What we know:
Blueprint: H1 10-13, H2 16-19, E1 30-32, H3 37-47, E2 52-57, E3 60-65, H4 67-76, H5 81-86, H6 90-93, E4 99-101, H7 106-116, E5 121-125, E6 128-133, H8 135-144, H9 146-153, E7 166-167, H10 173-183, E8 188-190, E9 195-197, H11 199-202, H12 204-207, H13 212-217, H14 219-224, E10 235-236, E11 239-240, H15 246-256, E12 261-263, E13 267-269, H16 271-284
Parallel strand pairs: 1-2, 4-5, 7-8, 11-12
Antiparallel strand pairs: 2-3, 5-6, 8-9, 9-10, 12-13
Amino acid sequence: MKLGTDNSDLLSSMTLSDLAPFDSLHPMTFVRHDRPILGSLVWMTALGMEGFLVLEGPSSVVGGITPLEVVRALDANVRAPKRTLLRITAREVAVPVPLLDLKSSMEDLLKELLRSRSYLAAIGDGSKVVGQLTPGSLHRTLMAHPVSKWILEQMSIGNLVSRVRSLAIDTPLEEVIHLIARSGETLFEVDDGDLAITPASLLRPLSSPETINSFLEDTHAFLSEPLITHRSTLIRLPRVRRDATLHEALKTSVESGVCALKVEDAGFLTIEGLFFGLAEELLASNVRL
């Protein structure tokens, strides 16, 4: 059976309600629209979250927040971090996210993610929002469902591998914040090695109980310090072979908790590749049962 060609298409037959038992929904990961983004920052770093929905009520989705939105808010107000963290609300930094019903198919979901270019999706059941989809939960779902797992095992990572820019380990934090906020890039290699920085890892020293007071009290001095001073900003990327299957790559990403991988002698798998690229590959796949 060729995917994407007829009404018996596998992706069309897999609905979100079918996938829910496979860990695709996370009903508790949301924040109220009127809450300061300090709470969002602390949640993301302390719990390692990829983002969450911003709700005005049980049936009203304002949008979503990922680490990139928090970095952009800090960059826009870098000289007034207290105002940014304590007065700017989740509503002010939220970005639009698609809303899909539990009856929606996996094909509909993948197409909507590509159309919206959103890393989050709200899942509704009638008039009520019941959960959300993130890159990590999508990966866990695809690996757990027997049909999508089989498809992933037949596909290679080749088309998803890309190059990323490199930063020196003595780059000041403020420069990194500015670069990520303005470029929207979600992965930078550090000193051409296994270390890297992402929007999520960049936020760690800004919300850590040990360092947040220093950040708020003397922002200029704190942000002038280089990455090497705040090693919590750096992550060590897991490695995969260049001939790895998509299933092997997603398994490595999920087990490590890092939505980015270094591909031996080839480049990197970024969150864009592992999310939007993955969606494109699945929709274009000619894998047959």
